[in-house]
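Structural biology now treats backbone shape like a language. To illustrate, our science desk offers a sequence and the tokens encoding its fold:
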Amino acid sequence: DIPANFSLQTETLDNLIEKLDNTLEFALHEAKANKDDITNYDAVRSDIFTRLTNLRNIPLRKENPLIYHLDVMAMYPNIILTNRLQPPAIVNTEICAGCDYNRPENDCQRKMEWQWRGDYSPANGSELRLVKDQIESERF
């Protein structure tokens, strides 16, 4: 991996440290496990606490990140087939009216409630300058 610079938010890390016990209890509850059954609970809690404290104390870091790649595009066909969705996933009556399979006996579209679960994060000044510099340096 290529070393990268990180600037961590100490307030967020303080919040994670403060809520560590509640988070661990929630994880145990979700796993349907009992705290008393975990033989090394205190060691694991102490390790997590130490790592979070280390991150908080040194928020400006240059480290080799662990890079994970998820092939989300490969999941789309499976989701479309499993949920009987039209290829554009969200269609209206005009699109259905022009479809060759638009007959009452064909149950090709599953009606689903769609909910926005995205984040809106506009580019800041440095990101904008980076894109401008990249575009200016490219040759067409």
Remarks:
- The two ends are 31 Å apart (CA to CA).
- Residues 41-57 form the longest helix (17 residues).
- Residues 92 and 98 are 11 Å apart (CA to CA).
